[in-house]
Write a structure and sequence with these properties.
Blueprint lengths: L8 E4 L9 H16 L3 E6 L11 H12 L8 E2 L4 H13 L3 E4 L3 H11 L27 E4 L6 E5 L3 E5 L1 H4 L4 E3 L7 H11 L4 E5 L3 H14 L5 E5 L24 H11 L10 H16 L1 H7 L1
Parallel strand pairs: 1-2, 2-3, 9-10
Antiparallel strand pairs: 4-5, 5-8, 6-7
Helix pairs in contact: 1-8, 1-9, 6-7, 9-10
The structure holds glutamic acid (GLU).
Length: 303
């Protein structure tokens, strides 16, 4: 199922770690424009699977900001905190297929082996796993986390903006975590299970997550579910040149005045913002501009 069937499903999937900032608005606007340009559905998923990192009130603030910006979701938001049973079922499936295994290693042990091998941490906090428990827990070890048995070989992704992207997940990340030692579900598992369950055909998100895409493709294959198409938009940099975050100057945006916020996001996406000073006509024109570059006709040219 993809956009060619006229059944496009997109989504915005914020983690409620704080209110939306300029960077998250860019991801929200881009995914919304892409869904509207394809006459598709746009779903909102609140990725609240990491309580220690969450901020009380953030979910309500995010939903309020999206409403003020005119980015209305189709249907009620899905909360990952309510979907533990689905993640458990997915893990069981993988275990039954011999594709997931328990790991008894501590973070410290993995970090030490990584240091010995001179490797840098992969994205999303993942340390390259040396495979210690792959063939069974060593004597006297208790299971801590659950990991995916990553097949050897290079994953190739055709990103609608970045073009061809390749990653050797086995070598660059290793067998990654599906369920953490603290019992929380890993982002990678939750996102793949939910994108599949919600029938998401197109993921449009910040390029800071592009490094996770190959892991998500490997996991979708292991679960036997289709992978969506991908489009990663440039991230907004903070004062220190890194991705904008609360640590480097991200401030909540002033959604009471939506047009300057939308203008800035549109410009960041490489488009001239519409001149009209009314929100809904602004959005309608923005859809036209986005469609000219990324809409169904552009998809057809890519094929
Ligand atoms: N919840 C993730 C984040 O806020 C985004 C997930 C995704 O778009 O795949 O970083």
């Amino acid at each position: 199922m993809n956009a060619a069937d006229g059944r496009y499903v997109g989504r915005f999937a914020p983690s409620p770690t704080g209110p939306l900032h300029a960077g998250s608005v860019v991801a929200a606007l881009a995914s919304w424009l892409d869904a509207r340009a394809h006459a598709g559905r746009w779903l909102l998923r609140i990725e609240d699977i990491d309580p220690p990192r969450e901020q009380p009130g953030a979910t309500a603030a995010i939903i309020d900001t999206l409403t003020r910006l005119g980015l209305h979701a189709d249907g009620e938001p899905v909360f990952q905190s309510a979907r533990g049973a689905c993640y458990a079922a997915a893990l069981e499936t993988l275990v039954a297929r011999g594709l997931a295994y328990p790991c008894g290693c501590t973070r410290r042990e993995i970090a030490d082996s990584q240091q010995r091998a001179g490797q840098a941490a992969a994205r999303h906090g993942e340390l390259v796993y040396p495979g210690t428990c792959r063939d069974g827990l060593p004597e006297g070890r208790a299971p801590r986390a659950w990991r995916l048995r990553v097949p050897a070989g290079t994953v190739r992704i055709d990103d609608r903006l970045l073009g061809a992207v390749e990653q050797d997940v086995a070598a660059e990340v290793g067998d990654f975590v599906l369920r953490r030692a603290d019992g929380l579900w890993a982002y990678q598992l939750a996102v793949v299970v939910d994108d599949a369950a919600q029938g998401v055909t197109d993921v449009v998100r910040g390029a800071d997550l592009a490094g996770s895409t190959a892991r998500q493709v490997v996991l979708a294959d292991a679960l036997g579910v289709p992978s969506p198409r991908w489009l990663h938009v440039p991230v907004v940099a903070g004062e220190d040149g890194d991705k904008l975050s609360k640590q480097n100057g991200a401030t909540a945006i002033d959604a009471a005045r939506p047009l300057p916020v939308l203008d800035a996001a549109m410009r960041h996406l490489g488009f001239e913002p519409p001149a009209v000073r009314e929100r809904d006509p602004w959005l309608a024109e923005a859809i036209r501009r986005w469609a000219a570059r990324f809409g169904p006709q552009a998809d057809a040219r890519r094929r």
